[in-house]
Design a protein that fits this description.
CATH topology: Porin
Number of helices: 1
Radius of gyration: 19 Å
Helix content: under 10%
Number of strands: 11
CATH architecture: Beta Barrel
Structural class: mainly beta
Shape: elongated
Oligomer: single chain
Strand order of the largest sheet: 1-2-3-4-5-7-8-9-10-11
Strand content: over 45%
Distance between the termini: 34 Å
Number of domains: 1
Largest sheet: 10 strands, antiparallel, barrel
């Protein structure tokens, strides 16, 4: 999805006339665990990084009936065999991936049980290679190689309550971070345990990255 189309669609829909009132909560904290497959250009290489597992924290705070602040942090790691060494040498290293997001969101009811939302975020990523070995021997000159970058992300989606217990989510996004730009689609679901707690899952498919996560939501 092209960036201008996503921006214009978000602005038009969120600014449209509204005949419904929202019954969704935008004060929450998500605590989760997930896995991500990366396809990234790292240190001049084009590497496919499989299954970087780690923790994720995401939160939202309402600042008005239709606006909220959003933030997220995630950190994962995996042991990766670099393609550059094959077939002459086996080069392995621990890759750590960190991601930080902060931004503002807008939302409005578009049906009796459906909210549309949009988010604009600053995004920062940090990829670090540690403990590199070549054919089992330490390669200190490759270790602690850092690649940091910042950029922005946009999301547009829908939250829908199927009933008092189950909620679904679907969204599309676009981001441009450290010269990596990609569109993505996310689907997810929440099951309410009670008014304060819920459990959920999310799946995201991007042009370069894929991720899956599960966790606990605390409403406040």
């Amino acid at each position: 999805m092209k960036l201008p189309l996503l921006v214009l669609t978000s602005a038009a829909l969120l600014a449209s006339a509204n005949a419904y009132s929202s019954n969704f909560n935008y004060n929450y904290l998500d605590l989760g665990y997930g896995t991500t497959n990366y396809d990234l250009k790292y240190g001049g290489l084009n590497e496919s990084i499989d299954s970087a597992d780690g923790v994720a924290v995401k939160g939202s705070v309402a600042i008005s009936p239709n606006f909220n602040l959003v933030g997220a942090y995630s950190k994962g790691s995996t042991t990766h065999t670099f393609d550059i060494g094959a077939p002459l040498a086996e080069i392995k290293g621990k890759l750590e991936a960190e991601r930080f997001e902060i931004g503002v969101g807008a939302h409005r009811a578009v049906g009796p049980r459906t909210d549309m939302f949009g988010e604009v975020k600053y995004v920062e990523t940090d990829y670090t290679t540690k403990s590199v070995t070549i054919n089992g021997a330490d390669a200190f000159f490759f270790s602690d190689d850092d690649q940091e970058g910042g950029g922005y992300g946009l999301d547009l989606g829908l939250r829908h309550k199927f009933n008092s217990r189950f909620e679904g989510l679907a969204s599309v996004g676009y981001e441009d971070v450290d010269n990596r730009n990609q569109a993505s689609a996310t689907v997810g679901g929440l099951m309410n345990i009670n008014q304060r707690m819920a459990v959920g899952v999310n799946l995201t498919k991007g042009e370069e990255d894929e991720s899956a996560s599960a966790g606990l939501r605390i409403n406040f």
